[in-house]
Amino acid sequence: MSRFSKAAALAGLLCLGTVAAVAAESFPGVGRPATPAEVKAWDIDVGPDFAGLPKGSGSVDRGQTVWESKCESCHGTFAESNSVFTPLVGGTTAEDMKTGHTANLRRTDFPQRTTFMKVATVSTLYDYIRRAMPWNAPKTLSDDDVYAVLAYLLNLAEIVPSDFTLSDANIAEVQAMMPNRNGMTTAHALWPGPGFGTEANKPDTGNTPCMSNCKPKAEQVSILPDYAWNAHGNLAGQNRAVGPVRGMKTGPDEAEAEAGSPALALAEKSGCLACHALNAKLVGPSYREVAARYAGKDSATALVGKLKDGSEGVWGDIPMPAQTELADGDARVLVDWILAGAPEK
Amino acid sequence: MSEGLPRPPAPAMDAGASNGRLRRAPENFLTAEQIALVGKGRRDFLRSTFLAAAAGVAGAAALGRPAAAAEGDDAILKPQPWATSLGQPVAANPYGVPSKYERALARRQSPGLTQVAAASVSFAPLQGMFGIITPSGLHFERHHQGWYDIDPAKHRFMVNGARPEFVKTPKVYTLDDIMRLPPVSRMHFIECGANTGMEWGNVAVPTVQYSHGMLSCSEFTGVPLRTLLEDCGADLKAAKYVLAEGGDGSAMTRTIPIELVLSGEVMVAYGQNGEMLRPENGYPLRLVVPGVQGVSWVKWLRRVEVGDKPYATKDEAVHYIDLMPDGQHRQYTSIQECKSVITSPSGGQMLLDKGYFNVSGLAWSGRGKISRVDVSFDGGVNWVEATLQTPILSKCLTRFNVPWNWDGRPAVLQSRAMDETGFVQPSYGQLRAVRGTRSIYHNNAIQSWKVADSGEISNVQIL
What we know:
The structure holds 2 protein chains of 2 kinds.
Chain A: H1 3-14, H2 17-24, E1 32-33, H3 36-42, E2 57-59, H4 60-70, H5 72-75, H6 94-99, H7 115-118, H8 122-132, H9 143-156, E3 165-167, H10 171-175, E4 184-185, E5 220-223, H11 226-230, E6 245-247, H12 254-258, H13 262-269, H14 287-293, H15 300-309, H16 328-339
Antiparallel strand pairs in A: 2-3
Helix pairs in contact in A: 1-2, 4-9, 8-9, 13-16, 15-16
Chain B: H1 32-39, H2 43-62, H3 74-77, H4 81-84, E1 120-122, E2 141-143, E3 156-161, E4 171-174, H5 175-180, E5 184-191, H6 208-212, E6 215-224, H7 225-231, E7 241-246, E8 253-257, H8 258-262, E9 267-272, E10 275-276, E11 286-288, E12 301-307, H9 314-317, E13 322-323, E14 329-330, E15 339-344, E16 349-351, E17 355-364, E18 370-376, E19 384-385, E20 387-388, E21 398-406, E22 411-419, H10 428-435, E23 448-451, E24 457-462
Parallel strand pairs in B: 3-12
Antiparallel strand pairs in B: 1-2, 3-4, 5-6, 6-9, 7-8, 7-12, 9-10, 9-11, 13-14, 15-17, 17-21, 18-19, 18-22, 20-21, 22-23, 23-24
Helix pairs in contact in B: 1-2
């Protein structure tokens, strides 16, 4: 029984009209009805049964255009890159499309788990690309371009041919070909309720509270490898300098190591480091490369302009979007720092 | 000592205790050049130097001679500036910050874990924290598409139905609306499903910050989601699931079990530890789903949809799915099962001396209250029961303590928690026998810290 009907019943019982008046609308003045346009604007989820899927279509060809201009910079030409995120495509076979199980998931020696190796539901990809990609400009693709770029990914994954057009009418047929469509199970005890009909499942692991002589000896199977000691900086600087213990000295003092340049912090804060590294090419050129190219030239003002307007064709095919959120003064600080060789301190 | 810890027998050796100082930390034994060598990655060198130094000090301490001048401790005998001059005025820090001596305790990233910092994790420094509440500035972070500091006046929360019959009146609420409603405040832990995920196959990280630091605990204040759904006339009989959605770029979405909504536990929260949520934790509105992994606690919450089917969103169909040895993924694994870890002393720390230590840690369960924690000093052969510190709350961190006299010999420290359902935290052997080593998520195995005779503590795994 809802709280309303309970309150109403109570009111009826006590014959208190005034109470009923309060209960009928329990929080007067709080919240307002959503307009249909508001619900439409935000209700963008697409379920495994394709509830919520917008009408539309997009071809592999069109998808390639979208991919090259909006996705390739981070995910690679064939969605195989792992420079920004794990690869989207790879590791599935034609045989998997028949069985609905990605066979490579059984192998312990297989290096990657790509998106297509795991995902069972094609709706997931439509829903996610529409709400969250491109990563730095989410919710900017048209519904048709989402169909198109998904068609392109399905083609890269060798699920559909290159002359395919994906649409709301045929997406269910694609679902029937997804390589890992049978790869999910809800047979576990980690869902709190009867939703999946699994409420009778007992926890699959556990222990007994034995107190003495519980086993012949403690069998040590893994220790921290030597390189990993140093990989997390100086542990002495990650522990309090008073108390019962100290951190172990595993590197130079934090003050030395971490008094990073304020410009570096600004670059991090301004999102530049999503695409640029100091020393390695990422989506854009490394800052050291930029410094080397413009060494001895008076390029600062021109580069500040590039940050405002975007840059194209200087370093390759991938353009840099205009950095519109950046304040003028900050742009200058960043450019001067880059031209000075992007020092870390 | 609210629960009356038994006083342990006197330590075998009181190293210089009379001058109020324990043995110096190892870095003080090294010259600048030696430290530079260590800085270049020569830990092997450090270890041998330290062993030599430790042996020397142990000898001196055995004589029981205080190192300070005969009359006493300079910290007492010499007037200190803070006792002999004027301090700072009120409101010098309008929003107070920790002491400058506390900078070591900070959120940190694990190098190489992710490629870009806006889709990454920072870990809470459990090794230096007390009690059960996480200071909001140290709360762990996990963002998928960066964080925003959203203007609360422009934030909206919407309730709608997957089909019209699920919600009679889809509604929109402002923060003004939600903060007018009767609030509840509750303390709960939040743990990322991938906490300890780097350690499924083998030891990978040196300290408890990186092994268990995707764990925090706060007092949250907000409105039960059930209240808001009822306010919209949701059909809570037909509803089986709700979808929660974030207002950020990732528009994070997760399927939430209706059972937890009906129980009143799931909360639309704006408060955290007496103030508003921090931006990194979802300001101005987040979902609180007690006992369930952190990804479901959708931040910057903008919408809840009532439906009757699970949604298979990206973070429940491609990630946060647990790979089993047979190649199947477990989907919709949500509950964080009973788990515990010793936070002090712990990996990457060193004991400064033999003698008395308070071994302290945290225990928690997504199924309810912690009922007991046992601690072992010999890698799980023998155990003693720890004292649980109050309060002991459902789906909340519980602090445990146990006294220990370190005799200077190698030891392996472990903790094993039990919850009110009778579930006992498994060992690595027990966990891997069922789930293999590739799951990534929901690693709740017993953690082992090995204490060497030098006092150095390292992360090891015991079956």
